[in-house]
UniProtKB/TrEMBL annotation:
The chain crosses the membrane at residues 12-33, 39-59, 80-102, 135-158. Keywords: Membrane, Transmembrane, Transmembrane helix. The keyword Transmembrane helix applies. It holds the Pfam family DUF4199. This is DUF4199 domain-containing protein. The keyword Acetylation does not apply. Coiled coil: none annotated. It comes from the Bacteria.
Length: 172
């Protein structure tokens, strides 16, 4: 019963995670994990755009497929929270794939550059910040928080509005 209820959230959590991995490959190909690492801090935030799009499409899919096109705010919020939890649970795996398969040079590059620029006084300080464990925790928390916030805002527009009854005006 529970698996049937969250089948759409599972599907979209997997799709979201694939989109994350594609984004990481694109960042690497664009040189943001190497040659252009100075721009990574700013440009990586553009991921919010595809992230929001995927969340909105997932919520619309839930509305259409499960609720027959009529989903109230609470139903959508619950769906979005479930989806966000699933994405957060998968995110350490996507971070591992990114850190060790897609872009193993990212952490050494960002550590070296952050010390060169003076963001950290020592390599050890930078290493304490830029590592798989930190990114896995931050990614999971970020996915959960941003997913819930995105859902809360999106559902204002996606929810089925209650029809207002128009009262006939009396005789004039």
């Amino acid at each position: 019963m529970a698996m049937k209820f969250i089948r759409i959230e599972i599907k979209w959590a997997i799709i979201f995670s694939i989109v994350v991995l594609i984004w990481m490959v694109l960042e690497k190909l664009a040189g943001l994990h190497g040659k252009f690492i100075d721009y990574h801090l700013y440009l990586t935030n553009l991921f919010a755009i595809p992230a929001i799009i995927v969340m909105v499409i997932a919520l619309k899919d839930k509305k259409k497929s499960v609720y027959d096109g009529k989903m109230d705010y609470k139903q959508g919020l619950i769906s979005g929270i479930v989806l966000s939890v699933l994405i957060a649970l998968i995110s350490p795996l996507t971070q591992w794939i990114t850190s060790y398969i897609i872009s193993p040079e990212y952490f050494p590059n960002v550590i070296k550059r952050s010390v060169e620029l003076g963001y950290f006084k020592s390599t050890a300080e930078a290493e304490a910040n830029f590592n798989y464990q930190n990114y896995a925790v931050q990614g999971a928390i970020g996915a959960l928080v941003m997913g819930i916030v995105t859902t809360a805002i999106s559902m204002l527009f996606i929810r089925t509005k209650k029809e207002k009854k128009i009262e006939p005006m009396g005789h004039l």
